């Protein structure tokens, strides 16, 4: 059943973050090599980006490669990097057509030069688009990001540019790689794992979490609608009582 018509268009999360997990297991189920799952996962990415455009989700962050993923076998890392380059170059015209603006967060300088070039080119080409902001987390980990922020803030204090008493949540936000984006309202993880694997630890402080057993290559528009519907059935209280929320 198409669940799209059930969605309340007045209550769409502004920012959705997704841990796209389960590509390897999906491939194994088909008797294929893990990388086959990564290839198929690209089709899910295309559909979910499109769904965001249709529903009015303004920001979509996709966890595509973690700092820890560098520890995978070299063949898999190499294949993922190649896939990244070919996907970005192939999909850029489509992103442009759909009004998608590309961003990247993470330790981008650690990626192979060809990836960095392709990424930068696509970021430049899509820079004036305004329908959806697609943020790729690449060689990203939240602890890496927080360590960087702390180092920068410490340097500023040492220089006398800011005082220790100036340090607050807003200031910390400004030193994170996500400083230009609102915090995610909804975080989805596929494949049945119930953990956040070093993803946006600070930014997810008040996000709604949605876990599904569906493997990423099987996660398509209707699965995304299901996640949005689950989000819409929750009461976001931010520490207040239910009565306070409902009386306002
Ligand atoms: C997620 O799928 C993609 C990346 C981490 C790059 P996995 O490759 O982690 O797939 P599983 O979890 O082994 O099934
Ligand atoms: C998290 O998935 C990273 C990405 C989806 C890119 P992993 O499959 O690497 O996470 P763990 O190792 O199972 O926690
Ligand atoms: Mg995994």
Q: Could you tell me how far the N terminus lies from the C terminus, measured between alpha carbons in angstroms?
A: 35 Å
CATH class: Alpha Beta
Unreliably modeled segments? none
Largest sheet: 6 strands, parallel
Number of domains: 1
Mean pLDDT: 98
CATH-defined topology: Undecaprenyl pyrophosphate synthetase
SSE topology sketch:
Blueprint lengths: L14 E5 L3 H7 L4 H22 L3 E8 L7 H24 L2 E6 L7 H13 L6 E9 L1 H18 L9 H7 L10 E4 L18 E4 L9 H12 L9 H5 L2
Parallel strand pairs: 1-2, 1-5, 2-4, 3-4, 5-6
Helix pairs in contact: 1-2, 2-3, 3-4
Bound molecules: 3-methylbut-3-enyl trihydrogen diphosphate (2 copies) and magnesium ion.
The site of one 3-methylbut-3-enyl trihydrogen diphosphate (IPE) has 10 residues, from helix 1.
Short description:
It contains eight helices and six strands, in the order βααβαβαβααββαα. The chain has helices at 23-29, 34-55, 74-97, 113-125, 142-159, 169-175, 221-232, 242-246, and strands spanning 15-19, 59-66, 100-105, 132-140, 186-189, 208-211. The radius of gyration is 19 Å and the shape is globular.
Structure explained in plain terms:
This protein has one domain: Decaprenyl diphosphate synthase-like (Undecaprenyl pyrophosphate synthetase), CATH 3.40.1180. The protein is 44% helix and 15% strand. It contains eight helices and six strands. α1 (23-29) crosses α2, α2 runs parallel beside α3 (74-97) and α3 runs parallel beside α4 (113-125). The longest helix has 24 residues, at 74-97. The protein is globular and about 55 Å long. The model has no long low-confidence stretch (mean pLDDT 98). The chain binds 3-methylbut-3-enyl trihydrogen diphosphate (2 copies) and magnesium ion. Residues 19-21, 63-66, 69, 193, 195, 197 line the site of one 3-methylbut-3-enyl trihydrogen diphosphate (IPE).
